[in-house]
Design brief:
647 residues, mainly alpha, 37 helices
């Protein structure tokens, strides 16, 4: 499969699966459908008893029905109360266990959910919905055999229910049992000829086998059931392309666009096909359409189209506004060059742009810019920067080029952070709402140790996206460096509300507690860290340091031992343990730790200085040599100390 076809294939699979990682196995694409049955809503309003009907207190069915209403409205905990009461009145009520299991599943209490689903199945083997939900949980836990067993139970007791066959088909697809998956999907279709997801599942199995004819046949069956499914038609067009049916492929792409003319991604796919057909004018028109559509930020398809063309957005828009200033030959060269850029044929693109530059009486800002993009694609960053310089000299209104130039100034070996900051600032003058640039500029200020300026940029960004964990972490780091520990703790706490398992952030918060004087909280935080990860040596070391400050030397040694058990080259823990041993007057042990430190780092004069002091205390003759070595390595020692050690 050539590069163009591979690109097109991955693009469409990306669209169907709505995933970003095109390297995952194709047979996992349909797995998401396994989770989408009977998804429960999330409450967006406050709960009130007045929203739901009164139920006779001894009516189990009425209680379950009211619980179902609450569950659908998103009031899961309130629904549980009704289900519990119904089951107290009628412990053999299978449906009650099923719906309570759904509630537990919604609350991620999976052990309780599994127990309830098992009870529901035991009481009513025909309650096949419980089999499907239980299978879903086992599938999520990667217990494939258990999931298969419970789904087979549902099939055996209620063979007319197509969804169970479909779920079994997804499971077999995931387990790489293609033939079994085909059989299960076909069983689902036999029970419902318009089971769209089953048709898609069959298509994916055949597509993985590169049986394009059968894949197309199954897609056509799905299209017969839902003629408005533009995605299926788009994929059918791609498969026609793989089979060499160029005209039919184009016809399918056209039909998909006619059904969903608002989806920019479809135009992107058709533009790539036009490039393959060498219809560069039509391809560029489609690329321009991608950016002329009203963008919907919530649309995953739109985001994917935008991502694939991100580097070319400004160039395409500029071409659209400037193309009437070129003659027909130049327009044709530009259109072909732009298309070559899109499919990464950068040498051909560059030749086209240079032809115009060589013949043009006036400098061509667009040509410089496009040539810069070609250089950038080939990682010729310094050359690209020069092209962007020429672009901005020719037409300063192309302010978005500043952003490209800034990005490259950071990537080049000569990291021009000042220049990059200046370029980002130029764009922000025109687009103060572009918070992504505030983030980029903040990161650069942080690298240059301009922490206050970095915080200002991060503050502006967080006004738009208050839960961006990377930016929160960066701002917290800046606060920590400038010793605003309470502010840093606040940011680390926000992160931990979203990622409670992030031990790195938890340790940083512990360090800030310690530095702000709250030793008790710092110790408790570290204790929590080492409970989850007994190899987190920094936490053991900090716990030891806190004990050291309290002059609880034995306990301090205990924690430093823990740290050094995990890393025999941890200098800070060795030095801290040396101090603890001195506090205990275990001078021989303290000397061993200094010996270990010098063995790790022979250039640290401070270690020789302390060893000289300790050896003098132990009346060792070599103390004077250590003192002389520390002076040689840059440690300033008073004459009185020298005379004391080296009489």
């Amino acid at each position: 499969m050539n590069r163009f076809l591979l690109f097109l294939f991955l693009s469409i699979i990306l669209l169907i699966s709505q995933r970003g990682n095109a390297q995952e196995r194709m047979n996992k694409i349909a797995v998401e459908a396994f989770y989408k049955s009977d998804e429960l809503s999330v409450a967006t309003k406050n709960y009130s008893d007045r929203l739901f009907d009164e139920v006779f207190p001894f009516d189990p069915a009425g209680l379950v029905n009211r619980g179902i209403d609450k569950l659908r409205a998103g009031f899961t905990k309130e629904a549980l109360k009704d289900f519990n009461e119904a089951l107290r009145l009628y412990p053999e009520f299978a449906a009650g266990y099923y719906f309570r299991g759904l509630s537990y599943s919604e609350l991620d209490s999976l052990r309780k959910a599994k127990s309830d689903f098992h009870l529901a199945i035991d009481l009513d083997p025909l309650l096949v919905e419980a089999c499907n939900e239980l299978g879903r949980i086992y599938f999520d836990e990667n217990k494939i055999d258990s999931a298969r067993q419970v789904l087979q139970h549902g099939i055996d007791f209620y063979p007319a229910y197509g969804l169970t066959y479909f779920n079994m088909g997804v499971l077999e697809m995931y387990a790489d049992h293609g033939a079994k998956a085909v059989k299960m999907f076909q069983e689902a279709i036999d029970r419902d000829s318009c089971f769209i997801n089953a048709h898609l599942g069959l298509s994916l199995v055949y597509l993985e086998r590169e049986n394009f004819k059968q894949t197309i046949s199954n897609l056509e069956n799905a299209i017969k059931c839902d003629g408005t499914s533009a995605v299926f038609i788009l994929l059918k067009g791609f498969l026609q392309k793989l089979r060499g049916n160029k005209k039919q492929a184009l016809a399918d792409f056209n039909e998909a666009i006619s059904i969903a003319p608002e989806v920019a991604f479809f135009y992107l796919i058709r533009s790539l096909h036009y490039i393959y057909l060498r219809k560069y004018h039509e391809a560029v028109e489609d690329l321009l359409t991608v950016h002329s559509l009203n963008l919907d930020k919530k649309s995953i398809k739109q985001k994917e189209a935008n991502l694939l063309l991100d580097n070319y957005t400004t160039a395409l828009k500029y071409f659209g506004s400037q193309r009437f200033s070129f003659n027909s030959k130049e327009v044709a060269l530009l259109e072909e060059g732009i298309c070559m850029l899109i499919i990464n044929e950068n040498s051909i693109a560059e030749k086209n742009f240079k032809k115009i530059l060589d013949k043009s009486k006036e400098s061509c800002a667009l040509c410089y810019y496009l040539t810069g993009l070609a250089d950038e694609n080939r990682y010729r960053n310094k050359s690209a920067i020069q092209k962007y310089d020429a672009t901005l000299e020719t037409d300063p209104s192309l302010y978005k080029v500043y952003e490209h130039r800034a990005d490259l100034k950071i990537k080049t070996k000569i990291t021009d952070y000042d220049g990059a900051i200046a370029d980002y600032s130029e764009v922000l003058k025109r687009e103060p709402e572009n918070v992504q640039l505030q983030k980029k500029r903040g990161e650069l200020h942080m690298r240059m140790e301009n922490y206050n300026l970095a915080i200002l940029d991060f503050n502006i960004y967080l006004e738009q996206d208050s839960l961006n964990l990377d930016v929160l972490y960066n701002r917290a780091t800046c606060y920590e460096v400038i010793k605003l520990y309470e502010n840093a703790i606040a940011d680390y706490t926000k992160i931990l509300k979203e990622k409670s398992y992030d031990l790195g952030t938890r340790y940083r918060r512990a360090a800030c507690y310690y530095l702000s004087g709250n030793k008790e909280k710092a110790f408790a935080e570290c204790d929590s860290i080492v409970t989850h990860n007994k190899f987190y040596l920094e936490a053991f070391n900090l716990m030891g340091a806190i004990c050291l400050e309290k002059e609880d030397f034995k306990k301090a040694v205990f924690y430093f031992n823990k740290a050094l058990k995990n890393n025999q080259h941890y200098k800070e823990a060795y030095f801290n343990r040396y101090l603890a041993y001195v506090g205990l007057q275990y001078y021989e042990y303290a000397l061993k730790d200094l010996n270990a430190l010098i063995e790790i780092d022979e250039t640290a004069g401070l270690y020789y200085y302390y060893r000289a002091q300790l050896k003098h205390l132990l009346t060792e003759k070599s103390a004077c040599k250590d003192m002389e070595k520390s002076i040689e390595l840059g440690i300033k020692v008073s004459a009185e100390e020298i005379a004391k050690i080296c009489p």
